[in-house]
Amino acid sequence: MTTDTVTGSDYGTLVRTHLARVEQHNAAALDDVAELVLAAVQADGTLLTAGAGHSLAAVAETFYRAGGLACVRPIYHPELLPMHGAISSTSAERRSGLAGEVLREAGLAPHDVLFVFSTSGVNHYPVELAQEAANAGCPVVAVTSVASSAQAPRRAGVTLAEVATVVLDNLVPPGDSTYPAEAPVTAAISTIATAFLWNLLMVRLVDQAAESGVRLPLWRSANVEGGDAANAELLRHYQTRIPQLG
Predict the structure, then answer these.
(1) Residue 117 φ then ψ, to 5°
(2) CATH code of the domain made up of 22-223
(3) Per-domain boundaries in the chain
(4) pLDDT by residue (tens digit) across 149-200?
């Protein structure tokens, strides 16, 4: 057996072990979030999903993809995208006031749900998103790492987890890197763990909807037979309130 094979096996085991811990740790919270989302769907509400930096990968996971919810509106600002400027995106996330601007443009209603993805959960943008939504009476789901927040500087005074309605903990260690285990320097796990949490939520939501007799607005792939036709009705319904579907 080659060294490379052993290394790959070790890392695969590490990821699988982490995801098993994430699933077990968040079992009750995922049930609670699924209930919130199902209520929003029944009220014809919108799920707003937000993040900054690499957490925007999680936002992309929620929006306009096969098997995903059509009632998702991604909210963001170009300054938060690392591809538009790595250093400036970090500065934007730490700037107070940007969250309020973004939410005012998106709009919030009590029957909506705001998801905020931020592993560190300490910068102004994610924290103020949650605070603004809570003040508007909108439930907030934080997808974050409580352990990472505990060791990061509290730039916003409080952490995202402390102001959220429900917390989904991706259990990411401070610094995000996971390999090698004894002194991690690479293999960030936050994207994998967060995407796993989102899809665990989708599975619960489908099961709860079936039990309640609720039809979920789910996208079909545009690259399978009948996909475009199936999605056309959803586009007609949601396009006016979700401009990113245009």
Answers:
(1) -100, 120
(2) 3.40.50.10490
(3) 22-223
(4) 999 999 999 999 999 999 999 999 999 999 998 899 999 999 999 999 999 9
